[in-house]
Amino acid sequence: MTDRAQHPVSRRRVAATALRLALGAHRRALAATLLFAVVEATGPIAAAWLTKQLIDSLTGHGTREVTAVAAALAATGVLLALLPYVDDLCQGVLTRAVALTAQDRLFRAVNAHPGLDLYEDPVRLDRLRLAQQSGQDTPVQLVQCALIVLRSGWTLVGFAGVLAAVSPVLAGLVLLGAVPKLVAELRLARATAAAFAGVTAGERREAFFSTLLGGTTAAKEIRLFGIGDVLRERMLVERRAVNRIRHRLDVRRLSVNSLPTLLASGVAGGGLLWAVGHVSAGTLTVGDLSVFLAAVASVQGGLGSAVTAVANGHQHLLVFAEYVAVAEGGAQPGTARRVADPLRDRIVLDDVWFRYAPDLPWVLRGVTLTVRAGESVGLVGVNGAGKSTLVKLLCRFYDLERGRILWDGTDLREFTPESLRDRLSVVFQDFVAYEMTAAENIALGDPAVDVPTRDGAPGPEVVEAAREAGVHQVLADLPAGYDTMLTRGFFGANDRDSGVVLSGGQWQRVALARALLRADRDLFVLDEPTSGLDPDAQAEVARVIRGLGQGRARLLISHRLSEVRAADRIVLLDGGAVREEGTHEELMRLPSGRYAELFRGQAAGFWEDASGPEREVAGVQGVEPGREQEVAG
Ligand SMILES: Nc1ncnc2c1ncn2[C@@H]1O[C@H](COP(=O)(O)OP(=O)(O)OP(=O)(O)O)[C@@H](O)[C@H]1O
């Protein structure tokens, strides 16, 4: 499940994508911006020409009506004064439309990525972040660069004609003076784009620390451990490193640009002396001098802007290539076309080997395991044994390195990932607490269920799922019932928008309700679903899970062995492979069995402070039948 984002994208394709994006986002705003660019470029030429006419008429060299020329000059001035505001309006419309479209396309592509590798590779994460940043404004900046080049080109052609009429040599000199600047800026653009990788990596780390310091997640630990200053310093270290990179770029810009700028200014100064000499000698009129001065300023200014725009455009292209790589590279179109059928018989893991990357150790080393339809399997093992990894493989977030996972005999890789996932319901160990309303938090579990709008009553499925997860009354009693925001993070116009904070166990029930909404799926996986629940809730959840039994395969992962003991079969993962398998009773009878050892260990832990008779009742040396659940829970 790799994407093409690792490969470079040609500049032509990047430029074409930016243009398509701008065109697709708001055609009229783009056309208006283009039109204004041409008008804006023509304005100074017209103004310079009219000024020459006016001066020549006033000094007795002109042939035109002074008042008419003055009126035309004034009108041009008004137009040029107003134009930037209208232009800003159009560019604002265009920028916002492009940002919206770019964001939409980017996250469509991200959503279409079937695996998790995009989020776990730092290089790709940086690329995604760059894509997010550059997608917002780079297409418009590219269009603006192109407009500046167009505008400058237009001005150049107009004024170069005028300048050439006065002196072709001077026109050539002025144009040549800008070439070193062009070369310098292009080199600078490459250096800036290369430095961007370091900047984004640093900013990502800085954002991590600033989110910790400014958010609620770590607020308790930061205060208890007194680590606020440590984290703040780590954040500043990253910011300082980023600042150093940016400062080095600024210094380089200054040094690279100094000489070409001096060269261009020298040419302008020399030209001015030359023209003044000719006016004194009477071979040029004062009107000629005025148009010459305007031409030199505009040609140099225009060339400078065009060079800077080309250089910036080059830099934006390099950065925007990241956007194109993510938004258009996307995931390799999967070869799988088959839609997963409802499970009739069994899921078989056949000699499954998996590691997260070739340079990381194996997590699963030849796991072979069967989960039958209608059967409940308890999956146990110490921390890091690979239980959650196995769940992620069942969801096909990753592909196996060796072995197969068979769904009624068909390799999972033959199914489209979406159709496979549509047959599963999972409560992940690290489930998400969405900062949305209670109803939305549950309804998100099934795309077939309408996510209620604010103020809309939750559907009966949502309420039923909440009831089964034992959280209905809690949600119904919230200030705005199911419509209450489950966060204190947002502030709204009315009081209820400020939301509420649920307890950990209540959140777990909400997550369970979300999964129960799709309880009709073929495989129901619960990865540590009750770790935060009180004993009554645990018993209730166990009952609900048992009730899911008809025809449905269930995989229950828990460190509380009392929770899995009722499963039809218990599988102990150890060292990346299935070490023990059987019913609770069978495993407890295994001589020197690891499961029995863990189970007794939990029971002993529970009773370690108990007196002798109590320990006997609990049967720590051999837990009394019928009391194990109680003692190990
Ligand atoms: N995204 C990842 N990238 C690299 N290694 C990972 C990743 N996720 C998990 N691992 C590693 O895989 C191993 C198995 O992790 P896994 O989460 O599957 O264990 P687990 O049995 O569910 O543990 P626990 O009981 O603590 O939840 C661990 O060594 C972990 O460090």
Automatic annotation (TrEMBL):
Reply yes or no: does the keyword Membrane apply: yes
Which compartment or compartments is the protein found in?
Answer: Cell membrane
Pfam families listed in its UniProt record: ABC_tran
Q: Keywords of this protein's UniProt record, alphabetized?
A: ATP-binding, Membrane, Nucleotide-binding, Transmembrane, Transmembrane helix
Residue spans crossing the bilayer: 29-50, 66-86, 156-179
What InterPro entries would the database entry show? AAA+_ATPase, ABC1_TM_dom, ABC1_TM_sf, ABC_transporter-like_ATP-bd, ABC_transporter-like_CS, P-loop_NTPase, Type_1_exporter
Instruction: Give one GO molecular function term.
Output: ATP binding
Membrane topology note: Multi-pass membrane protein
Q: Identify the residues that the record assigns to the ABC transmembrane type-1 domain, covering every copy.
A: 31-315
Keyword ATP-binding included in the entry's annotation:
yes
Domain spans labelled ABC transporter: 347-600
Major location category of this protein: membrane
Protein name stated in the entry: ABC transporter ATP-binding protein
